[in-house]
Design brief:
Elements lengths: L9 H6 L4 E3 L2 H13 L5 H14 L3 E5 L8 H13 L3 E2 L9 E4 L20 E4 L5 E8 L3 E2 L2 E5 H11 L1 H7 L2 E8 L5 E7 L1 E4 L2 E4 L3 H7 L10 H14 L6 E3 L6 E5 L3 E5 L2 E2 L9 E8 L18
Parallel strand pairs: 1-2
Antiparallel strand pairs: 2-14, 3-17, 4-17, 5-15, 6-14, 6-17, 7-16, 8-13, 8-15, 9-10, 11-12
Length: about 300
């Protein structure tokens, strides 16, 4: 079991609210001005502190009060990108090379293996992404549902190891993940452990639907019964209410998580019928190379096609 501060339970974050930052009126005014000036004189020391807390603390930060209601959508993008550049270097999130991605339902079929679930209203179960830091800025929330849920992947592994050390050992071995289909129609897969151990540090990479979609593809061995049991136990543990924390995103909320130690998910949602009211978040993937728990392959983002 680890003593890493990133090994928290949801009740810990309910009691200790140090991971929540309420922007002051002065900081909100500075963000409004930054939309045109590109400068953050009084927020820069705060941003250094945010980075330190993400690197050495819980690995999660919720910043409330970004004045999205007074910013146009493009200005909100500019301000979000400016804040992000003080925390890390943006990397591509898809084959189109997008550095800021729109998280909204565009009517895609969530059962299509080529569809990324952030473009649907379907539930996304617990997973990690492809960078050191993941940022979300809420412009508009859904009519119902769409909760952001986080859990410490360090705690999840500790709990699996406590209950079933035999299955926890399998998480340290290579698992095969579907990545995407190449232009010639060939599916691309890669192998990586779900959990890596470096001394007392636990580092996680986990996209369960990509593991399952890799099954049956060329060069991918079938999951053994033990691997299947380990995968299900890991998912069940992550979804334990005593471990996870729900965040009801409001417009102007900004979430930052350290990808290596936090799993995140989104519950399914029902959107507003009016297009101008529909749920809309912006997302950044950032590389922070001084973070010791990063992986060179993952922190590079998704290569452009």
């Amino acid at each position: 079991m680890t003593t890493d501060p990133a090994a928290w339970r949801g009740s810990d974050l309910t009691t200790d609210r140090s991971w929540v930052v309420e922007l002051s009126d002065a900081h909100r005014r500075e963000l409004l001005a930054a939309a045109t000036s590109g400068e953050l004189p009084s927020l820069e020391p705060e941003l250094r502190d945010w980075r330190r807390r993400l690197q050495h603390g819980y690995g999660i930060l919720l910043v409330r009060g970004v004045p999205v209601e007074d910013l146009g959508e493009q200005q909100a993008r500019d301000v979000f990108a400016l804040l992000g550049r003080h925390l890390g270097d943006p990397v591509s999130q898809n084959k189109d090379g997008e550095l800021i991605t729109d998280i909204r339902d565009v009517g895609n079929d969530p059962s299509d293996p080529e569809v990324r679930l952030y473009t649907t209203a379907a539930e996304q179960d617990f997973h990690t992404d492809g960078a050191d830091l993941i940022g979300l800025l809420c412009l508009r929330s859904a009519r119902e549902g769409g909760l952001n849920r986080v859990v410490s992947s360090v705690t999840v592994y500790d709990e699996v190891a406590r209950r079933r050390p035999d299955l926890a050992a399998l998480l340290l071995q290579d698992w095969h993940f579907f990545l995407h289909t190449q232009p010639d129609g060939t599916p691309l897969t890669f192998a990586m452990p779900i959990v890596r151990q470096d001394g007392d540090r636990i580092v996680t990479f986990f996209i369960p639907w990509y593991i399952r979609r890799a099954q049956g593809l060329p060069g991918v061995p079938d999951l053994t019964p033990e691997q299947d049991e380990a995968l299900r136990l890991y998912e069940e543990t992550a979804n334990r209410p005593d471990l996870y924390l729900d965040m009801d995103f409001r417009p102007g909320d900004m979430q930052w998580i350290r990808n290596a130690v936090v799993l995140h998910k989104r519950t399914a949602y029902v959107d507003w019928p009016e297009p101008e009211r529909r749920r809309h978040l912006l997302r950044l993937w950032l590389t922070a190379r001084e973070f010791a728990d990063g992986d060179d392959l993952l922190r590079a983002g998704i290569p452009q096609a």
